[in-house]
Give the backbone structure.
Amino acid sequence: MRVSDIDTKAFSLVLSGGGALGIAHLGVLHDLETRSLVPSEIIGTSMGGIIGACLALGMRESEIYEAIVRFSSVSKWIKFSFSGNAIVDNSKIEAIFTTLYGDKKMKETLIPLKIIATDIYTGQKRVFTAKDDVTIKDAVLATMAIPGIFDEHSIQNRTYADGFLCENLGVNEASFDTLLAVDVLGTNAFEKTLPDNFFKTSNVLEMFERSMRLLIYNQTQTHIKHLKKEILLIEPHTSDYTTFSFHKHQEIRSRGLGLLDD
């Protein structure tokens, strides 16, 4: 399917998780704005949920990018924790999300929004929608809570972690028969060679990240294979960056540009 096929159709915009790689979503959003294409709903996981929530509230791509740039320095949002189950305390991140979303609830978006998280106790997928009486900030804190890295997040006596654990590209949650899905952990997220750094530690870390990307990629491919809908799948070239390369925001954003061209 080509982008011209969705010009006159209601479509679901699905944005994957991927940490800093998710900044590539902004390049795609820029091109959608250029074409005056507005999704009928937005589905996001992790970083895709953070960006998708901004879009659902009516922020333009340039405004979302400015917010990313302001907080691109890791020191502005990371506060190390010496207790609990995670390396990072979420207090700084929560303050950032308060700035972005205020106390708005899921039902207050201009475009219907779905955010995917995972129940940390049962492993079941949890999709936050306008039907839930929760704030966007809470839903986003849940969807981006990578286990062991960020604090798990509790909402209404349930505890949640990152949505990538169950569905990194939320195609199964689409209400419409036509989907535009952007997967920053797709086919183009992998180097074609194995790491060969001088320090073994670097090789080990790269292999771990590669393994996680492969795990998520295979999960997504299974979901797409069984999908009974029309899908335009966009897979930006993100293999040159790590999931924490927030300082390379300009380069990563550019990887999403021009991918909607027929």
Observations:
- The two ends are 9 Å apart (CA to CA).
